[in-house]
Design goal:
The complex is a heterodimer of chains A (about 260) and B (about 290).
Chain A: H1 2-30, H2 41-48, H3 50-83, H4 89-101, H5 104-114, H6 127-156, H7 159-168, H8 173-184, H9 186-201, H10 205-209, H11 215-225, H12 229-258
Chain B: H1 15-44, H2 55-59, H3 63-95, H4 103-116, H5 120-130, H6 135-143, H7 158-182, H8 186-194, H9 199-227, H10 231-237, H11 244-254, H12 260-289
Helix pairs in contact in B: 1-12, 3-7, 3-9, 4-7, 5-10, 7-9, 8-9, 9-12, 11-12
Family (chain B): Belongs to the binding-protein-dependent transport system permease family. CysTW subfamily.
Membrane topology (chain B): Multi-pass membrane protein
InterPro entries (chain B): MetI-like, MetI-like_sf
């Protein structure tokens, strides 16, 4: 068993190196902007860039709208499918897996053909319409993850009993979802929300092809034109992803601890 | 509840609420997921006047398009196979014990982060690592006198892209395959050992066959994951590496093929490839759940 354990250590060690070396290299590279000394100059330049500020704010706003919009359509659907419309479950499973089958670039291609200026529903005519289209695109990207986390949340509580208890006290469907179901699946929803945030914040394909001034296309632009700033941006992007995933871990651990 | 206003076809008055609750999602799914996909699939079989034709699909058999599919498939297969093998090994090392307790949750958390760290920033990270001015490139040449670019390595190539994709493929594999490895029961190993089986025999006849469907299924998922990716490749190589997503991107941007329906056909081909690999994944998962319940 001794040699066994050596092999395990070796696997972990090589894996760790493979994942830490690029991070260390990126961080080191990002400090090299000023000749001869390490400095945070690249970060200062990036953070002071008005285009960085506007594109980052745009993407954060978009992520928030995506999360709210996605939850608003997915939660009632998942609740009623779990409670009354079980027949729909295979269809819902299929639809929520579809974004993993159809690549993002194909979906956005379809949008551009279906909702362009000469179509029945010319969403791309106005920037508001295009922003709406982009939001819809992000909801489809996040759909598998959002639905999965909400469904897990709903399964861990007794939806039927809670609903019947609330109904016998005279609550309407809206009240039940808002005041009974939502508080009970809060941690599942938060996990889905942060995962969605991590996916949306640096997304490139949709934003670029719909011509929106989002963070992803900005990253690409900087990458094509600058040397050290991209590394600084990569470090920041990694920290955002890390923060989102860390928060999810904390949420799910707290939820597990709170359960009897 | 006036009985003359609502017919008796609805047994309970709250049924419409369920329909109302489900409708927005259904409308969304049809408008923003199913219709756009169908539009491209139908368009792939139409000529410019809207008549049925197979000529768009026939036009995929040109050297540029075929080679772009081929490079995409090669990168996806390589990153899926290598990623699946290494990921499974790391997952096994983390699960099977013998290591300190803190290692496993650390690896799981890190895999969650790294599997989501893709797109444009990942390309930046690898340029800073293995690009011409990258830390590892310079380290190798100054310490070992090994100039990897003179040796024929190029980050903007098939192996460069594969190496970069592995950064999210390996952790994704760890996440997917860990539950399956956890499903291997200790008793199986003990029973095999008592009956005199060697480690090799245990893997060859027991653990291997039980894990194989999960392993293959996960590898297929990794394949589809890499096949549809574009941002990393685009930020890394610009349009110098002709993979199919970049070809389609250029086609959407500027209609480089001068044929809109050919674009639909390229998209259709991608859906077929990722669709088939996902279908096999689902079939394999059903098979693997027989043992790992």
């Amino acid at each position: 068993m001794k040699t066994d354990r050596l092999g395990h250590w070796l696997a972990i060690l090589i894996g760790t190196l493979y994942f830490l070396v690029p991070l260390a290299a990126t961080f080191e590279f990002s400090l090299r902007k000023l000749r001869g000394v390490y400095s945070f100059e690249a970060y200062r330049v990036v953070l002071a860039d008005p285009q960085f500020q506007s594109s980052f704010t745009f993407s954060v706003g978009l992520a928030v709208v995506t999360i709210v919009f996605g939850m608003a359509i997915i939660v009632p659907m998942a609740y009623f499918v779990e409670l009354r419309l079980r027949k729909l479950r295979p269809f819902v499973e299929f639809v929520t897996l579809l974004p993993l089958v159809v690549p993002a670039i194909v979906i956005v291609f379809g949008y551009l053909r279906l909702y362009n200026s000469s179509s029945l529903l010319p969403l791309t005519n106005s920037s508001l319409g295009t922003n709406f289209l982009l939001t819809c695109g992000y909801v489809t990207l996040a759909l598998p993850y959002m639905y999965r986390s909400i469904e897990t949340g709903l399964r861990s509580i007794d939806v039927r009993t809670l609903t019947e208890a609330a109904e016998s006290l005279g609550a309407s469907s809206g009240t039940i979802i808002w005041r009974i179901i939502l508080p009970n699946i809060r941690s599942a929803m938060l996990s889905g929300a942060f995962l969605t945030f991590a996916i949306v914040i640096g997304e490139f394909t949709f934003a670029s092809l719909l011509n929106r001034p989002a963070f992803g296309p900005y990253l690409q632009l900087i990458g094509a034109n600058r040397a050290y700033e991209p590394a600084a941006l990569a470090v920041m992007a990694f920290m955002i992803t890390w923060a989102c995933m860390g928060i999810i871990q904390v949420i799910s651990r707290n939820a597990a601890a709170a359960r009897p | 509840m006036a009985s003359n206003a609502s017919p008796a076809s609805l047994p309970r008055p709250r049924v419409p609420w369920a329909v109302v609750g489900v409708t927005p999602f259904m409308a969304f799914a049809v408008l923003f997921l199913i219709l756009p996909t169908l539009f491209l699939v139908v368009g792939a079989f139409q000529d410019n006047e809207g008549g049925f034709t197979l000529s768009n699909l026939g036009k995929l058999w040109t050297p540029t398009i075929l080679s772009s599919y081929w490079i995409s498939i090669k990168v996806s297969v390589a990153s899926a196979v290598i990623g699946a093998a290494i990921g499974a090994f790391i997952a096994y090392a983390a699960v099977s014990g013998g290591l300190p307790r803190w290692i496993r949750p650390t690896i799981m958390t890190f895999s969650g982060v790294a599997s989501q760290f893709a797109g444009v920033p990942l390309a930046f990270a690898f340029l800073a690592t293995l690009g011409r001015q990258g830390l590892v490139t310079i380290f190798l040449s100054s310490v070992f006198g090994l100039n990897i670019y003179a040796q024929g390595f190029n980050l903007l190539s098939f192996w460069g892209l594969t190496l970069t994709y592995l950064y999210f493929q390996i952790p994704l594999m760890v996440l997917i395959v860990t539950p399956a490895i956890e499903g291997l029961k200790k008793e199986w190993r003990e029973a095999a050992t008592i009956l005199g089986a060697s480690t090799w025999q245990y893997w060859r006849h027991i653990a291997g066959p039980v894990l194989l469907p999960s392993f293959l299924g996960a590898a297929l998922l990794l394949f589809a994951n890499a096949f549809g990716a574009i941002a990393t490749a685009y930020a890394l190589t610009g349009s110098s590496l002709n993979i199919v997503t970049i070809l389609l991107y250029a086609q959407i941007r500027g209609d480089v093929l001068h044929d809109q329906n050919l674009g639909y056909a390229i998209a259709f081909g991608m859906i077929v490839i990722t669709g088939l690999s996902n279908l096999c994944y689902i079939l394999l998962r059903v098979r693997s759940e027989r043992w790992l319940k």
